[in-house]
Amino acid sequence: MQHDPTRTFPGVFVWEGRGCLIATGVTHPQNFAETLPTEMSVKIFGELDAGSLCSASQTCKLWHDIIEECEQLWRRQCLLVRAVCQREVDGDRREGLSWKVTLVRNYTRSCLKRDWLRGRYSNVRSVEELSGRTMVPLDAETWGEILQAELDR
Question: Of 49, 51, 101, whose CA–CA distance to 71 is shortest?
Answer without folding.
Answer: 101
